């Protein structure tokens, strides 16, 4: 077969389908596209919105002051005939004046009790100044720091004066006596709320602030006039009237409406009986548009109770609450909304009803006033929704009055949920908050619409932390907390999702969950293996937040067998579930010794070893993080605890130090730092031995080996030991595991020739790291021990860990290298302070003349660890051979003192060392992992969003690639019939290229040479980039090109 025919066959088989291949492009797996590659490993920078009230308050006392003087009109107001007469829906002229006054007072108290039944009510009917003073002082004394309400009805007395005075009576009711608001402030104290139902009430509001400032000035003057410090008289608290709330029936110079169709106390009626007033006003305004048989008399016959949402009256009250909350939420500043509508139940009810009073009274040319001042709300569009709900209710009222079973519930909430859904479906990215959010809050109270409301609420909080903050600020928290008591399984997916979103933004909610036993809900959910893995992942995340730095949460989770529950599912096929089960364990036993020992009993650390080789890097990093907190959680050190930590650290270093993902290696450094901190003296001994060995090496004129070890020839310790000793001076990767026990016995026998343990030198932890310099003189004799002791035939666990950390100092990833240096330099700096000056100077001068040691991280943990009992003699510790690269940057003294000195001279923690240790290094891996739950997960990523910029870029690239393939096919066909004699690119390089890779679609290629990597554009002939190694000995060449996963 000829060459031309064979080429034709290849051409036809390669492109016989004739398709562009764009469909297969979309199915190609993407590399280096995970979040660990595309974003920094950092936690959420956006802080949670302060949605919690700084202090919850309640109105505990109410003073009802009525100045009616029934039968006598005030002299400064001329009433129309007929005029408004009803007071608390009672006609005072229908009975004797005294009885009418008492009846009105009792009715007013009942109307207030609907909103705050637990308050203490006191009536003062047509009082004198002394009676008002006595009443106010008594209520303030009993209320202490809680709020007191002062309700004033001045329909039977003159209008308030321009000097800030209201009117009461003398004892014989023959004169009107002025009562200054200044005095009233003094008697009422703060916090208080004032309701003024009288003409010209706005004048009181304006002068109230002036009197408050006058109180403050007088207080400052009284303090300056007091005797010097040391006076036995206590300093009175400063007056604080800034938080006082005022509600006034009308503005300055306005009089109350006298329309006979209205009650005389229309303002009080709106505040205390809003539904009745709203319905009567609606009937009056729309009498011609309503069905027949709907009259004012039928309004009073509406069946049901205000607090029963299943009845017509209760449903109307429910709708009214939702609408007024929505108006306030969309109109008021957030802080003011919280103060007026979420802090105090009675205040919230009064201000909801105040919005209605503004709407109704403005239709009669009367403008209610409040302090703090509210923006106008009487024309808000939500009032139209209220009118529609009232219209639908009144349309069926005649039939309901005949037969209550004919009552049909209002479609208001269903329609509002639909509007909320439309906002979620069609809203743009730059959208204002949905006005229906407070209504969704109210819908959660209904079992009929609860499931749909939770679903929509879950979609809303999934939009991001801003949405979670909005939901929390509107008051969603107590509702979803209460729903955890529900046993309905259909609510589980939505509740666990919403709670995961809440805790991802504000972890402080953990305390509320523990206090209300909400953790049990998630414990039962995670134990139910029939639940989907993604829902159990959410439950694991919620539980990890509950136990995060929260001892009560850790205690209840441990009682709920969380350790065993997580370990049972730690090998689940869902990688995100594996990751968060491990993180949950890590947070559970972090600084909680009981949970750690529970994990020991369940062999938790051994079960986590398997995850160190998990195919998912995030799972491996979580396992390393969990084992690191496992080692840091021991309160009282023991030989058993030390042996466990030694094995964990050894396993980590053996398994993870070569992990291709820097995310995992960074967690390794963080985990190993706890061993360094806990056994600081042991590592100080190794570091001092390193300095001494390097000084001896420099004085003998020899260089360190490539593995970082050197030393004098080692004499045999006994018959037949020469071969074993020769291996001890060789690189660590040549140590054999089967020889370790023989070496232990030889070292034990050699140790008998050493000085007595009571006289040899020990590194002792003192109150300050810098104090180790005082031990310099005692260090010198230690360097002159016999060569037999210097030639130990095994490498201790601390030396091996030190070698591993020293190898990480040379890690190719800059962050891993920097973190490892921070840990090793912490020990090296203290060791340098401990070594005598002449030894340190020798070491430093030698290090300047020595070439840097190449990194060799393979096989430095192949030998078995000797028993912990052999490490008690610090003289043996001092003479272990552990030499690493002398290149490091010393830490400052301030950095070295960040670790508490709680280690005793034998390397174990003191008994009172339960306080948390300060880390030398840390990462934000767990915080970064938490961002998965605070960011949108329902909407999908940009890669699948057909309207995202990332999607458009990929689509363009795939279309471009298809065109390149078509052009390549055409060029390939023409290549068989035409000559290829056109030169595309030519250039000279400094070194001979060792490798060349062409990009399949871009006009780029990469050339590897001795000096580095070059990226070229073969169309323009320009070099686009040049890369060369930034560390290591001069003149390196690339032997392999790879990148971490």
UniProtKB/TrEMBL annotation:
Q: Name one GO biological process term.
A: cellular response to starvation
Residue numbers spanned by region Disordered: 1-25, 697-759, 832-861
Q: Which GO terms describe its cellular component?
A: cytoplasm; TORC1 complex
Task: Write out the biased-composition intervals (Basic and acidic residues).
Answer: 832-841
Source species, domain of life: Eukaryota
Where do Low complexity bias regions lie?
697-711, 719-731
Biased composition range(s): Polar residues? 1-16
Q: Give the molecular function GO annotations.
A: protein-macromolecule adaptor activity
This protein's record includes keyword Calcium: no
- Where does the record place the Raptor N-terminal CASPase-like domain? 56-209
Which keywords belong to this entry? Repeat, WD repeat
UniProt keyword annotation of Repeat present: yes
Checking InterPro entries in the record gives:
ARM-like (IPR011989), ARM-type_fold (IPR016024), HEAT (IPR000357), Raptor (IPR004083), Raptor_N (IPR029347)
Name of the featured protein: Regulatory-associated protein of mTOR
């Amino acid at each position: 077969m000829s060459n031309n025919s064979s080429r034709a066959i290849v051409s036809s088989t390669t492109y016989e389908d004739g398709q562009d291949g764009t469909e297969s492009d979309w199915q190609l797996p993407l590399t280096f596209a995970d979040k660990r590659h595309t974003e920094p490993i950092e936690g959420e920078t956006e802080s949670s919105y302060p949605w919690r009230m700084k202090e919850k308050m309640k109105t505990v006392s109410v003073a009802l002051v009525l100045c009616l003087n029934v039968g006598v009109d005030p002299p400064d107001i001329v009433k129309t005939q007929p005029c408004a007469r009803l007071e608390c829906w009672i006609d005072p002229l229908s009975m004797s004046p005294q009885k009418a006054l008492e009846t009105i007072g009792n009715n007013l108290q009942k109307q207030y009790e609907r909103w705050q039944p637990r308050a203490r009510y006191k009536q003062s009917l047509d009082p004198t100044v002394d009676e008002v003073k006595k009443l106010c002082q008594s209520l303030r004394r009993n209320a202490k720091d809680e709020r007191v309400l002062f309700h004033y009805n001045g329909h039977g007395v003159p209008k308030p004066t321009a000097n800030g005075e209201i009117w009461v009576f003398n004892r014989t009711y023959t004169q009107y006596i002025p009562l200054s608001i200044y005095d009233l402030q003094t008697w009422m104290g703060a916090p208080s709320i004032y309701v003024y139902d009288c003409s010209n009430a706005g004048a009181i509001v304006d002068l109230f602030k002036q009197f408050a400032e006058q109180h403050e000035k007088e207080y400052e003057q009284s303090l300056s006039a007091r005797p010097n410090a040391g006076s036995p008289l206590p300093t009175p608290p400063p007056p604080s009237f800034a938080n006082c709330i005022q509600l006034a029936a009308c503005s300055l110079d306005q009089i109350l409406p006298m329309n006979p169709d209205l009650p005389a106390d229309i303002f009080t009626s709106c505040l205390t009986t809003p539904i009745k007033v709203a319905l009567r006003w609606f009937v009056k305004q729309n009498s011609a548009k309503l069905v027949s048989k709907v009259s004012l008399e039928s309004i009073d016959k509406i069946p049901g109770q205000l607090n029963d949402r299943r009845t017509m009256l209760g449903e109307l009250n429910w709708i009214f609450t939702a609408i007024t909350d929505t108006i306030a939420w969309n109109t008021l500043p957030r802080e003011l909304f919280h103060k007026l509508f979420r802090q105090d139940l009675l205040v919230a009810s009064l201000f909801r009803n105040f919005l209605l009073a503004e709407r109704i009274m403005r239709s009669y040319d009367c403008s209610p006033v409040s302090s703090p001042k509210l923006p106008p709300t009487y024309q808000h569009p939500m009032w139209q929704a209220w009118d529609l709900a009232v219209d639908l209710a009144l349309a069926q009222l005649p039939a309901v009055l005949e037969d209550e079973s004919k009552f049909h519930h209002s479609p208001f909430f269903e329609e509002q949920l639909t509007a909320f859904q439309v906002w979620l479906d069609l809203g743009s990215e730059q959208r204002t908050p949905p006005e229906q959010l407070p209504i969704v809050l109210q819908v959660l109270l209904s079992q009929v619409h609860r499931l749909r409301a939770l679903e929509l609420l879950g979609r809303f909080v999934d939009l991001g932390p801003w949405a979670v903050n909005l939901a929390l600020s509107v008051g969603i928290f107590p509702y979803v907390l209460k729903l955890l008591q529900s046993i309905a399984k259909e609510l589980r997916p939505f509740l666990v999702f919403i709670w995961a979103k809440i805790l991802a933004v504000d972890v402080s909610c953990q305390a509320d969950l523990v206090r209300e036993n909400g953790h049990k809900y998630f414990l039962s959910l995670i134990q139910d293996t029939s639940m989907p893995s993604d829902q159990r992942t959410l439950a694991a995340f919620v539980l990890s937040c509950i136990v995060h730095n929260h001892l009560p949460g850790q205690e209840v989770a441990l009682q709920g067998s969380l350790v065993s529950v997580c370990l049972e599912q730690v090998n689940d096929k869902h990688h995100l579930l594996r990751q968060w089960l491990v993180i949950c364990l890590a947070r559970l036993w972090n600084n909680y010794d009981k949970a750690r020992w529970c994990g020991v009993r369940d062999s938790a650390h051994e079960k986590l070893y398997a995850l160190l080789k998990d195919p998912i890097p995030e799972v491996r990093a979580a396992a390393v993080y969990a084992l690191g907190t496992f080692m840091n959680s021991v309160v009282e050190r023991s030989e058993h605890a030390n042996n466990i930590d030694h094995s964990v650290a050894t396993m980590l270093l053996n398994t993870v130090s070569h992990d291709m993902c820097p995310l995992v290696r960074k967690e390794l450094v963080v985990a190993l730092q706890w061993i360094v901190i806990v056994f600081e003296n042991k590592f100080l001994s190794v570091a001092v031995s390193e300095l001494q060995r390097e000084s001896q090496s420099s004085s003998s004129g020899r260089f360190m080996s490539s593995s970082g070890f050197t030393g004098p020839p080692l004499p045999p310790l006994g018959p037949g030991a020469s071969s074993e000793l020769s291996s001890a001076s060789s690189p660590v990767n040549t140590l054999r595991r089967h020889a370790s026990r023989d070496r232990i016995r030889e070292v034990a026998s050699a140790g008998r020739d050493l000085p007595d343990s009571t006289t040899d030198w020990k590194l002792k932890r003192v109150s300050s790291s810098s104090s180790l310099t005082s031990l310099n003189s005692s260090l010198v004799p230690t360097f002159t021990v016999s060569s037999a002791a210097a030639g130990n035939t095994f490498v201790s666990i601390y030396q091996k860990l030190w070698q591993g950390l020293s190898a990480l100092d040379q890690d190719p990833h800059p962050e891993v290298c920097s973190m490892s240096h921070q840990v090793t330099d912490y020990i090296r700096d203290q060791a340098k302070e401990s070594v005598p000056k002449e030894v340190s100077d020798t070491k430093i001068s030698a290090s300047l003349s020595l070439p840097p040691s190449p990194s060799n991280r393979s096989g430095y943990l192949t030998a078995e660890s000797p028993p912990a009992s052999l490490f008690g003699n610090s003289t043996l510790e001092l003479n272990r051979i552990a030499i690493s690269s002398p290149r490091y940057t010393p830490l400052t003294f301030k950095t070295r003192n960040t670790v508490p000195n709680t280690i005793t001279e034998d390397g174990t923690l003191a008994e009172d060392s339960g306080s948390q240790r300060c880390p030398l290094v840390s990462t934000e891996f767990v915080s970064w992992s938490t961002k998965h739950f605070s960011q949108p997960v329902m909407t999908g990523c940009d890669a699948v969003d057909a309207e995202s910029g990332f999607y458009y870029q990929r689509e363009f690239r795939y279309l471009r690639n298809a065109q390149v393939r078509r052009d390549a096919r055409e060029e390939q066909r023409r290549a068989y019939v035409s000559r290829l004699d056109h030169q595309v690119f030519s250039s000279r390089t400094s070194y001979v290229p060792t490798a060349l890779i062409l990009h399949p679609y871009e006009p780029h290629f990469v050339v590897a040479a001795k000096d580095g990597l070059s990226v070229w554009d073969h169309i323009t002939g320009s070099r686009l980039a040049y890369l060369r190694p930034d560390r290591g000995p001069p003149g390196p060449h690339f032997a392999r090109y790879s990148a971490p996963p």
